Amino acid sequence: MFKPVQIFADWLTYSVFGLGSGTLAGGAVNFFVFDTIKIFLLLAGIIFAVSMLRTFLPPAKVREIILKKSRFSGHLWAAALGIITPFCTCSAIPLFLGFVQTGIPLGVTFSFLVASPMINEVALIMLFGMFGFKIAALYALSGYVIAVVSGLIIGRLGLEHLLEGFDQSKRIKNAVFGTEMSWGERSAFAVEYTKDILKTVWPYVLIGIGIGAWIHGYVPENFLARWAGADKWYAVPLATLVGIPLYSNAAGVIPLVSALTEKGVAMGTTLAFMMAVTGLSLPEFLILRRVMKLKLLFVFFGIVGAGIVFTGFLFNFVMR
Amino acid sequence: MKKIQILGMGCAKCNSLYAAAEAAAKELGLEYEMEKISDIEKITEMGVMMTPAIAVNGEVKFAGRVPSAESLKKMLSEAK
After folding, report:
1. What whole-number distance in Å separates Cα of residue B77 and Cα of residue B80?
2. For a designed S-S bond to A28, which of A163, A217, A234, B27 qualifies (C-beta 3.0 to 4.6 A apart)?
């Protein structure tokens, strides 16, 4: 599918820039050109398609669907719908309240809240582009399981008393869907959204792929295995911790991580790191603090964090 | 008199929606009044789950996006 891109990258590197095909610089430049074009094509195409789909599933409709489900399938649906609902910290609170106040159980709401940022289209596209289908699918699947399971656990713990900052006796009945959109408006929305995302992520993508290309070309094979190989127990928890402050920069982090994996970082460690980057974010933490007590936030972070670390170990063990 | 309400807790998009709505209302020569609603209780009470949102006289018209100038004008001229 990306053959023409490879041909173009080869032509640019070897004919235009005149770099030798066996040289380190040639390899790094070729890698950079090919990956950059490939990633931007994927991002533009897939984000457009996903945002088209989104115009049919506004959060109010998502809520209706979840409300009709029984408790267990509610978790399954909430996590699935979380994947296609965009998550931005500026909308997190109205979404959260909109769920809880219409009577969606707290645990089910958390399933949604975990899946939405963790399994987002940018992260998936980048993973697919840099690691291939299998890893992207593994990431999505384990993220989904973590979302469902952490929601189930939080639901079981009965922590509703730890919500605060809003009137819990108030129940919202009617949902506002907004004005029905025409096809023209849908595609205009999708174009706008795609432009927005590309505008925010492009510098990170370029920097990420740039550093990745350098590592790819200049760092010896298996250089990192000594410190971050599958047999190092501390690698997974450490990667998870390091990932927390890197929130929302999945676009820049993934190319980097892909290069590191090539040099010997174990796959489970990489996955755990990625999940921590997308799923555990400090801005989200601060925003959610306005509607829940610190204790609930720590429970939430703790459970999701434990799930991520567990997944990391599991993959390191299985894929060794 | 149309009361144009912008719902949002102060993110960048809320501000751009505010500006776009005001520009549209001016262009139409409407008699209008702008109002910012940033109280989360009020926002959820109005049934909005995605900010920014825009309402006219208490009725939510768009939520979760900044509509184009054209659809804003169309909506504002049709709104009661």
Report:
1. 8
2. A217
Band of residue A168 on the pLDDT scale cut at 50, 70, 90: low
Count: domains in chain A: 1
Q: Which range marks the domain in which residue A59 is found? A: 3-171+187-318
Answer whether residue A24 is part of any domain: yes
Question: Where residue A248 falls among pLDDT bands split at 50, 70, 90?
Answer: low
Q: Does the beta carbon of A169 lie under 8 angstroms from any beta carbon of chain B?
A: no
pLDDT per residue over B44-53, tens digit each? 788 788 888 8
Q: Give the list of residues 6+ apart from residue A45 with CB closer than 8 angstroms, or none.
A: none
What is the signed CA dihedral for A108, A114, A119, A120, rounded to 10 degrees? 100
Q: Which residues of A touch B62 (CB under 8 A)?
A: 178-179
Question: Whose structure tokens read 């309400």?
Answer: B5
Mean pLDDT of chain A: 84
Among B7, B14, B21, B43, the one annotated catalytic: B14
How many angstroms away from the CA of A57 is the closest CA of chain B? 12
Pair A48, A191: CB distance under 8 Å: yes
What is the rounded distance in angstroms from the CA atom of residue A11 to the CA atom of residue A157? Answer: 60
- The tens digit of pLDDT for each residue in A55-102 reads 888 777 888 888 888 888 999 999 998 888 877 666 777 888 888 888
Rg (chain A; Cα; Å): 21
Q: Could you confirm whether domain B2-78 is CATH 3.40.30.10?
A: yes
